[in-house]
Write a structure and sequence with these properties.
This protein is an alpha/beta fold. It contains 20 helices and 30 strands. The radius of gyration is 24 Å and the shape is globular. The protein binds 5'-O-(acetylsulfamoyl)adenosine (7RM).
């Protein structure tokens, strides 16, 4: 257990942030050249910069600097989809693989600043590829392997990636994911991509283009294991990661090297009370920010030993997570409320038949955790003896922002509790905002300064999180959910605009409006109001077809649960869809529809309310 006084340290971080962060930056990170200023700029001018003048390399911090003391220590314990498949990588081995792959990237003419797309299953090569990019100063853009070819293509195009790294196939819950096939489909319209490097994960063969496609394992034979790190400026990009906003187009959140690295390294250390003998396991996929910050950079920069898992919580059965914890002696376990809810539903026996004696800290992230579910996690998974950290943060924030600190913060079930050091939250009209810069914050939205500026517009001088929250009289924050058109479905962030565009890809659809409704396991799910083209008849067959349309456009994470046919949608006289009203109808919250005096045609609402009755049980 670490010894410090949260309140005193927090106060110091507020009183003198410059001194506070200078100390942390020197403590957690190795620099080629020291920074000249700690913090310049502000939210008003959109010009915040951390640690300017400093030079460093993220891969050096993750690997090289540990070699003198930890070369034989395990960096990753990889558990494959099937329990019989596993692999161990020491820091020296990981270093060696990363250097080689960095040389492969160079051979493919990838240079500092170039963007590289990584579309991979959870295999060590995904992490090797990320670190190899960081080593040579290339900017990785990891796209979650569950995304469709079309989503992948849009992300490749937006970032103008030069190279794609994928696997022939992925494996999840004994099901095959056709990654290379998806890449081929995506690349039909991606002129910037010169080459695709393919990891052989399964024995099955896939279509092959000799000019463009290259086997990872063959390429690795052709290069040396000697590759110096590129010395990066503090504010050089480290990666782009796409996330959903309220409009149709995902945003390329761009993080820069120094601030991001300082912040994730320090938060990992404190939030998980990391000790050298710990075995850490974060179940997130590297396709999400949680994977970037707390599978890759945070743990490695602390020299930690982590489990990484390719599979799913219910294969071969619902004990899988707890078996993995016992197999590797996991001490710190970090997962999502949606996974906890799904496992809780199956009954305690799947948990209680395992030992879980090694556990000491349990974490959650991604959505609010309801107090009952929190209690089950505490009592049944943690046997009433583990600290729970409910961590609130976002792709944009880079790292954990509001969280209990183990053995410091008295726990309250369902509250993310207190801000991390240096973080100053505030609640304005139920909206959660952050009023001071912190090192982990994004630098910009790639290629879209305007959308970056939008975060700082609503309440000038503050960062607008898009979440609602309350704060109790002991300073505990309770995050209640989003206040924009962003859904969290099984913890996956998806914009209603993207979903509506996806519906429109079906030529039978004239118009679609999507809202979120609560779901026992997923937390939130998709409720769509769909207007068909004049000559098209509604049918259950067509509903099934539309579900496929959306899955095809975005991926399986975006499967609609409810579709309601709508002859027309409620609109204002200027033609704007009144989503607020639709949200109430979908949620059967009809007592007070709010101000509907601007509706062009009030009868539309009555009709939708009447038809809603039939939908209540039509859970597909
Ligand atoms: C890490 C991540 C961000 C959104 C955020 C919230 C929600 C995340 C919590 C939470 C309540 C939490 N990044 N969220 N953590 N809500 N309690 N502990 O999830 O960019 O994908 O999503 O997730 O709405 O704004 S994300």
């Amino acid at each position: 257990m670490q010894k410090y006084d949260y309140k005193a340290l927090y106060q110091r971080s507020m009183d003198d942030p410059v001194h506070f962060w200078a100390v942390q930056a020197e403590k957690y990170i190795a620099w080629y050249q020291p920074f000249k200023t700690v913090l310049t700029g502000d939210f008003e001018h959109l010009n915040v910069e951390w640690f300017s003048g400093g030079k460093l390399n993220a891969c050096y911090n993750a690997l090289d600097r540990h070699l003198p003391t930890r070369s034989n220590q395990t960096a990753f314990l990889w558990e494959g989809d099937h329990p019989d498949q596993s692999l161990k990588l020491t820091y020296a081995e990981l270093y060696n693989e990363v250097c080689r792959f960095a040389n492969v990237l160079k051979k493919f003419r990838v240079k500092k600043g170039d963007r590289v797309c990584i579309y991979m299953p959870m295999v060590p090569e995904a992490i090797i590829a990320m670190l190899a990019c960081a080593r040579i100063g290339a900017v990785h853009s990891v796209v979650f392997g569950g995304f469709s070819p079309e989503s992948l293509r849009n992300r490749i195009l937006d970032a103008e990636c030069k190279l794609v790294i994928t696997a022939n196939e992925g494996l999840r819950g004994n099901k095959i994911i056709p990654l290379k096939k998806n890449v081929d489909e995506a690349l039909t319209e991606c002129p910037s991509v010169e080459s695709v490097i393919v990891i052989k994960r399964t024995q099955n063969s896939v279509p092959w283009d000799d000019k463009k496609n290259h086997w990872y394992h063959d390429e690795m034979q052709t290069v040396s294991a000697d590759c110096p790190c590129e010395e990066m400026d503090a504010n050089d990009p480290i990666f782009i990661l796409y996330t959903s906003g309220s409009t149709g187009k995902p945003k390329g959140i761009l993080h820069v090297t120094a601030g991001y690295l300082v912040y994730v390294t320090m938060t990992f250390n404190y939030v998980f009370d990391y000790q050298p003998q710990d075995i850490f396991w974060c179940t997130a996929d590297v396709g999400w920010i949680t994977g970037h910050s707390y599978v890759v950079y945070g743990p490695l920069c602390n020299g930690a030993t982590s489990v990484i898992f390719e599979g799913v919580p219910n294969y071969p059965d619902f004990s899988r997570y707890w078996n993995i914890i016992d197999k590797y002696g996991v001490t710190i376990f970090y997962t999502s409320p949606t996974a906890i809810r799904a496992l809780r539903r199956e009954g305690d026996e799947y948990v209680t038949r395992t030992a879980r004696k090694s556990l000491r800290i349990l974490g959650t992230v991604g959505e609010p955790i309801n107090p009952d579910v929190w209690q089950w996690y505490y009592d049944v998974v943690g046997d009433g003896r583990c600290q729970i950290v409910d961590t609130w943060w976002q792709t944009e924030t880079g790292g954990i922002m509001i969280t209990p600190l183990p053995f410091q913060t008295p726990l309250k079930a369902g509250s993310a509790s207190w801000p991390f050091f240096g973080v100053k939250p505030e609640i304005i009209d139920t909206h959660l905002v952050i009023t001071k810069p912190w090192p982990g914050m994004m630098k910009t939205i790639y290629g879209d300064e305007k959308r970056f500026a939008d975060y700082f517009k609503k309440y000038p001088g503050t960062y607008f999180t898009g979440d609602n929250a309350t704060c109790d009289d002991e300073g505990y924050y309770w995050i209640t959910g989003r206040n924009d058109d962003v859904l969290k479905i099984s913890g996956h962030r998806i914009g209603t605009g993207e979903l509506e565009n996806a519906f429109l890809e079906n030529h039978h659809v004239a118009e679609a409006a999507v809202v979120g409704v609560p779901h026992d396991i997923k937390g939130e799910t998709i409720y769509a109001f769909v207007t068909l083209q004049g000559n098209v008849k509604p049918s259950d067959e067509l509903k099934k077809e539309l579900i496929q349309t959306v899955r095809h456009a975005i991926g399986a994470i975006a499967t609609p649960d409810y579709i309601q046919w709508a002859e027309s949608l409620p609109k204002t006289r200027s033609g704007k869809i009144m989503r607020r009203v639709l949200r109430k109808i979908a949620n059967n919250d009809l007592k007070d529809l709010g101000d509907i005096s601007t509706l062009a045609d009030p009868s539309v609402v009555e009709k939708l309310i009447k038809d809603r009755e039939g939908i209540a049980d039509a859970h597909i």
